[in-house]
Specification:
The chain starts with 9 loop residues before the first strand and ends in an 8-residue tail after the last helix. The longest helix has about 40 residues. It has about 150 residues and is mainly alpha-helical. Helix 1 runs antiparallel to helix 2. The protein has a two-stranded antiparallel sheet.
Length: about 150
């Protein structure tokens, strides 16, 4: 169920007027971004927490956690690859140290960069390794007189 609410300028209640600056969808809960299980747990954990923050419009928290997810990659991936994601470092630093709040779209863009990077460096290699192992098993079964099994 999606509820759309359109407001104009001032909302009043109880005699006091206030400006409505943002309406956040809290229910139904937004889907939480998840990284595949091929990605190491510490990275998935921080990424998921960033997604939870993003889902409730806590964009500074999301930026900080997405940056933390990328920092977990240090030592696991080439530094050149980590440095190729300056958006995550900039977003996280600006949010935590300078109090800058980026737009929902900018935060989502960084999340998608992380998804893309982890797909390239964890998921795709795991899929290739599984395919290689399946072919090896078929060859071995064939060489040993067994009937090759269908993939």
């Amino acid at each position: 169920m999606t509820i759309e609410m359109i407001t104009a300028g001032i909302a009043s209640g109880g005699g006091a007027a206030r400006t409505v600056s943002e309406i956040v969808q809290l229910w139904p809960r937004r889907a939480v971004r998840e990284l595949p299980e091929e990605v190491p747990e510490p990275i998935r954990d921080r990424f998921r927490e960033g997604s939870l923050c993003e889902g409730v419009a806590a964009y500074r928290g999301a930026a900080a956690m997405y940056r933390a997810a990328v920092e977990e990659l240090r030592g696991q991936l080439d530094e050149d690859l980590i440095d190729a994601l300056p958006e995550t470092r900039m977003l996280g630093n600006d949010s935590v140290h300078d109090g800058l709040v980026y737009s929902p779209e900018e935060v989502a863009d960084v999340a998608e960069l992380i998804v893309e990077m982890t797909e390239t460096h964890y998921v795709t290699p795991a899929k290739k390794a599984a395919m290689r192992e399946a072919r090896r098993q078929r060859r071995d079964a064939h060489k040993n007189g067994g009937a090759p099994t269908a993939p």
